[in-house]
Amino acid sequence: MDTKQHFSLWYFVGAALLMLAIQSFLSGPSQQLLAYSDFETLLQAGKVKEVTITDEKLSGTADLTGLKDSLNPALGQAPSAAELKNHDFVVARVPDANLVAELQAAKVKFSGRIENRGLSTLISWIAPALIFVLIWSLFMRRMGGGQMGSVMDVGKSRAKVYVQKKLDVTFADVEGIDEAKEELMEVVDFLKNPDRYRRLGGQIPKGVLIVGAPGTGKTLLAKAVAGEAKVPFLSLSGSEFVEMFVGVGAARVRDLFAQAEKLAPCIIFIDELDALGKARGVSGPTGNEEREQTLNQLLVQMDGFDMRSGILIMAATNRPEILDPALLRPGRFDRHVAIDPPDIKGREKILRLHAKRLTVGPDVDLAAVAAKTAGFVGADLANIVNEAALRAARTNKASVEMNDFDEAIDRVVAGLEKKNRVMNATEKDTVAHHEAGHALVAESRPTADKVTKISIIPRGIGALGFTRQLPTEDRYLLKYGELLDRLDVLLGGRVAEQLVYGEVSTGAQNDLQRATDLARHMVTQYGMSALLGPATLTNTGAQVLLSEMPAAMRGEYSERTAQSIDEEVRRLFGEAEQRVRTTLTDRRAELDALANALLQHETIERGALLELLSQVQGATRPSAPGTSTNAPRQVTAPIPA
Asked: Which residues are part of the catalytic machinery?
């Protein structure tokens, strides 16, 4: 059972017990009732001394001396002689028209009493209701993790306010995105010296939109701006505005700007703006009306506040193409700051920043680590540094060494090693030939990234092996021939299996998925098809929200064009498969030798790979003119230590 629900159930059990206790207290002390027939017997015997009559009961005193055995159930446990002489009794009243006459005949003193139950009844209703409201409030707070608050606070902003003492992030803590830092330094100057720009008639930008892939440091950069400017920083997520109650999001927007006016000059930072600012009208009749009302309120507030108040709105998103155009126009988010993944120099700076807190060994070359992590963003690099430190700590090392960084890269890219996973000999041989096929095709293509490591140790979820390639430099443009080489490398493993075993396995599923995406992008996005011409056949921008619909329903292209796209993708696959088959057939001896070496050593680094290939090529080279080498020979070359 969930912990929050467990405690909440105990709250309700306690509330029920408390209400029972209140009801018991209000009903008075419990008394044993005397049977009405016994009361008649006592009355006729002259034992009743006095009686008080109410609407529901008869109560009074009687002399029970000599009647103990016959009235034992009503007497309780062992009453004394004095208690028997003046015993209090209670009788549930029954309709009896002769009661008063009988009391008068027995000369019993009797009186009536009107019970005032108004106060007790009121308390019995109000007290349980108050207890229920209290328990429900505690339940809602616990279920909301301390952020849900009471019902009365539902329209208040949930922005977390960071003041100068709590926010110690500056531009010194941000590396690898120098261009974005320079652009935002001007924003810091706006907040520090606004009069410098106002005296010339300039206006401070209202909003800054930071755009970048996940993990590139958008939130960190926004905090650094607030830390440099030394102003309060109001931070919240776009999803915190939208609730199931209509009008709550708009009320929170108004409350947010009201808080900001009290703290001005300050920075409002909205993370994941796309959760709030999706383009209106593209979701059809099933769109979220509450989200659109919240967005409208945000647009109104951005237009309405005074730019001289010193409030700067910053937002971050990794999906700018789906934002509403009204958010991006001048007067709202005036500045757009794009953050790209860092280049090799930027990655090295980020690694050095995070490695400051580590005890690094003398063999660690962070420049080499940066070269091995092409395409990684700041969050990935921070994770690699942390994983390297954890691995060194697990092995009780005095410092973090270079092999710890290498293993950390493999773990982040391919997952955790699973050496205990048992594979039979056939599966292991298949994986070895599969990875050998990838490596040989990569080494045979002039523009393909060079292989740095091959492993057949299972990793992660379903990965039975991997071939790691290292780009020689950061690339921003890829030509047609380079894309074909990448397509060949992706198909190398599957073709190697087919060449060796005459059939294919399910191990190439991920390779085929990536190859299909690459081939389809070449045809539909890059215009690299002679049949279809230089046309982009995929919608971008706000229409990406409709991307789950079939292409013909979106009106992007006709069914005939869709058929042509499929034919072009099949053509690219067919030609690539033929090229790869020719390469691996010509280098069959190297394929078998590399697979056997992987079976023996499980992991091969680049140096050992090059030495193995050179030995196999020398062994299979004709010794004299006219010697035939059409039939490849299986050569097993040792891997140097």
From this structure: 435
